[in-house]
Amino acid sequence: MTVQLKNSNQVRLVSNLQKASEYYSTILGFNVDSWGHAIRDNVGFLLQQANNLEDIKPNERSNYSSESWAGPPTGWDTYCYSDYNGVLAIYEEFKSKDAVIAYDPIREDMKDQDWIEFGVKDLDGYVVVFGGGKPKQ
What we know:
- By secondary structure, the protein is α/β, with parallel strands linked by helices.
- It folds into 2 domains: about 10-50, no CATH class; about 80-135, 2,3-Dihydroxybiphenyl 1,2-Dioxygenase, domain 1.
- The chain has helices at about 15-25, 85-95, and strands spanning about 10-15, 30, 35-40, 45-50, 80-85, 100-110, 115-120, 125-135.
- This is VOC domain-containing protein.
């Protein structure tokens, strides 16, 4: 018998579960249940109250050694894919709700496609990036 995995949720240790749940729900548009499961489309997190604030550790920015790409302006904790226009739409949605923008949309030439991405921060500094491309015309 082959077992099929249905999905995965990244665990986020947070400083205040109630405030984090409200932010993910009200600002980022996730459905958040009483267990801390935050789901939007095919993206999921499990928000958990941290026992110690020192346990909350968003990723630092990595050093990139590519000559063709300087790397992102911040560390990434999650990367969500959409299409080009979807990225623009969700950026406008988040701006209208006063989300904490980690960095504004960056447009990049990816040879066969045009790529766009931006990052949003949650209340504990985790950066969720939204990126997507479209074929070059």
